Amino acid sequence: QVQLQESGGRSVQPGESLMLSCAASQRSFNHYLGWFRQAPGKEREFLANIGWTNASTSYADFVKGRFTILRNTDDRTVHLLMNDLKPEDTALYFCNARLTRSTDAREGYWGQGTQVTVSS
Predict the structure, then answer these.
(1) Per-residue pLDDT averaged across 6-32, rounded?
(2) Are 12 and 118 in contact (CB under 8 A)?
(3) Would you give the DSSP letter of residue 39?
(4) Do 78 and 71 contact (CB within 8 A), yes or no?
(5) Which comes out higher in pLDDT, residue 17 or 73?
(6) For 100, how many CA atoms within 13 A lie in the half-sphere containing its CB?
(7) How far apart are CA 84 and CA 96, in angstroms?
(8) By CB neighbour count within 10 A (0-12 exposed, 13-18 middle, 19+ buried), where does 5 fall?
(9) Could you say which DSSP state residue 31 is in?
(10) Residue 117 near residue 55 (C-beta atoms within 8 A)
């Protein structure tokens, strides 16, 4: 059982940057840690993931160049740095842990989510 806790979501203006954080309960594992988001009325979608042991990353095409995923093995956290935020980035952002690089929105362990709102 992996427990995840997200933080860092808040209201920002278009063009601003924001970093989300996710704390994992386990001291070590061989999972992939990732971020998904879900906007009202839409399905949950994959954003990015990172291998816990080798830090290899994978991104959804629509966030490449704007979002960066990072992990810190010392304090068991994974972060999502989001630049040039747009109103369409408004969503509930979820941290996820799973044993594969799959981007299926139904798999793995989930946090409770942190809300990001982008508006002027």
Answers:
(1) 92
(2) yes
(3) -
(4) yes
(5) 17
(6) 6
(7) 23
(8) middle
(9) P
(10) no
pLDDT in tens, 23-82: 998 766 778 999 999 999 999 999 999 999 889 999 999 999 999 999 998 889 999 999
Rg, Å, the chain Cα set? 13
* Structure letter (DSSP) for residue 59: E
Question: Using CA atoms, how far apart are residues 23 and 95, in angstroms rounded to an integer?
Answer: 9
| Amino acid present at 51 | G
Q: Helix, strand, or coil here: 119? A: coil
Residue 24 is encoded by which pair of tokens?
């994992």
What is the model's pLDDT at position 2?
Answer: 87
pLDDT at 20 > cutoff 70:
yes
Average pLDDT of span 102-115: 93
Q: What is the pLDDT of residue 69?
A: 98
Task: Give the Cα separation of 80 and 18 in Å (integer).
Answer: 8
Q: What is the pLDDT of residue 27?
A: 64
Give the angle 14-91-86 at the CA atoms, nearest 5°. 20
Cβ(36)–Cβ(106) below 8 Å: no
Tokens representing residue 120 in the block: 């002027």
